[in-house]
Amino acid sequence: MKKLKYLSIALLFCAMACDSSSDEKQKQEEKTEGKTDFSTELILSSDKNTIINNGKETAKFKLLNSENNEISPDAKFYANDKELENNTFKSTETGTFRIKAIYEKQESNIIEIKVVDLNSVSKYEIKASRSQLISDNIDEISFKVIDRQTKQEVSIAAEFYADGKAINSQTFKTTKNGHSKLKAKIEKIFTDEVDVYSFPKFAKRMIVEDYTATWCGYCPRLIAEFDKQEHNYSIIPIAIHNQDKMGFGKIGILANEFNVTGYPTGIKDRSGKFYYGYRVPANSESNIGIGLDTKFENNKANINVKVYTKTATNSNLNIVVYLLENNINGTQANNLSKVSSFKDSRFYSLPSHISDFNHCHVLRKSVTDLFGEKIPNKNLKNTTDYEKTFSVDLNTTKAENWDVVAFVVYDKTTEGKKDVLNAQRVKLGESINF
């Protein structure tokens, strides 16, 4: 009977065991898991939007990967689904040709090239140094005007326009996101327009879903890590509690999906474990931007989410929206009490059982499905905004204690991957731009 009793106790402790992998194993695994590929999108652009049907004038294409490295030599290019010999295009036929590129079975955005008769185009042609720029009012492109017949530059005699408004420069910079039409005028003759696309820099933010519990004595280890990064806005901790008064009802679904077998376990960007000492790479960027505009009225949280894609994508993406609660007073087991390796942590001087601990970032509601709500593909292929307002009942008198977190993930059912591409957090009742 005693043996059975001791066996039951041993099994109980085993089931509640905290994940205490050695530091050496953590470092070894971190070498591979610390490097996250946040996006794999391709960016196709052209030096011209219009060419003459003389079979000589060419449009030259450039293909960039998500790290802005040119991969044109290794890609295949297509005009109206017919493969081209290289990354240039010319034609004797008039019409509009849809151009795309394929690299390692991944398809780029589609651009259009117009082939026109010489008599139907302007005598002058405007050329831009680049077709894309960052909308920070610092990055700029330059352009020049060429006489189509003499092939000579005549920019000195030209007036330049952006979206129909005259600009006093041969360069262009902007704070606007999206497409701008540039053209020039010489001797009352306008050139054809050239299209330039501008986009913001989106800072990459990483979510860490912290599987935790008040009864778990080693769970303060992850809380201590978050304390160290309190002012690091690139990291968004999300505490998902199990079997305590803050327990999240659907934790089993998430734990099963991400192979959580012990406490604490931190999962970063749904793509790997978050280890002690891990830091978000400095100045990380994403192709995805998220804006949040939130309000709390009549016990209802209204959350307007806007997603912006820097480049068109063929991937299937979802948006996940969470509501987190802060400043919840409760208990917390603390196995870090008087442990010398945690002298720099607040938990070192606290008792082994904390009776009035302040819990923060606690996941209370998933406004969407746990794995997200589908973002319509039409919003992703045209680099336009996706926008939706969510409304959820929230019975609280302290809206200031609540945070809204939204993040964009791959649709795991169609993409076969779960990574978070970017995330955003704001206090309920406040707003934040991309």
Q: Would you summarize the structure shown here?
A:
With 434 residues, this protein is mainly beta. It has six helices and 35 strands. Helix 3 links the parallel strand 20 and strand 21 (235-241).
CATH architectural type of the largest domain: Sandwich
Mean pLDDT across residues: 84
Report the radius of gyration as a whole number of Å: 28 Å
Strand content: 35-45%
CATH top level of the largest domain is Mainly Beta
Helix content: 10-25%
Number of strands: 35
Fourth CATH level, the homologous superfamily of the largest domain:
Immunoglobulins
Shape: elongated
Q: What is the fold named in CATH at topology level of the largest domain?
A: Immunoglobulin-like
- In DSSP terms, counting alpha (H) and pi (I) runs of 4 or more, how many helices? 6
Alpha-beta classification: mainly beta
The total domain count is 3
Largest sheet: 6 strands, mixed
CA distance, first residue to last residue: 63 Å
Which segments are poorly predicted (pLDDT under 50) over 5 or more consecutive residues?
1-40
Description:
- With about 425 residues, the chain is mainly beta.
- It folds into three domains: about 30-120, Immunoglobulins (Immunoglobulin-like), CATH 2.60.40; about 130-200, Immunoglobulins (Immunoglobulin-like, Sandwich), CATH 2.60.40; about 200-430, Sandwich (Immunoglobulin-like).
- It is about 10% helix and about 40% strand.
- The protein has six helices and 35 strands.
- The strands form nine sheets. Strands 2, 4, 5, 7, 8 and 9 form a six-stranded mixed sheet that branches. Strands 11, 13, 14, 16, 17 and 18 form a six-stranded mixed sheet that branches.
- β20 (about 205-210), α3 and β21 (about 235-240) form a beta-alpha-beta unit.
- It is elongated and about 85 Å long.
- Mean pLDDT is about 85; it is low at about 1-40.
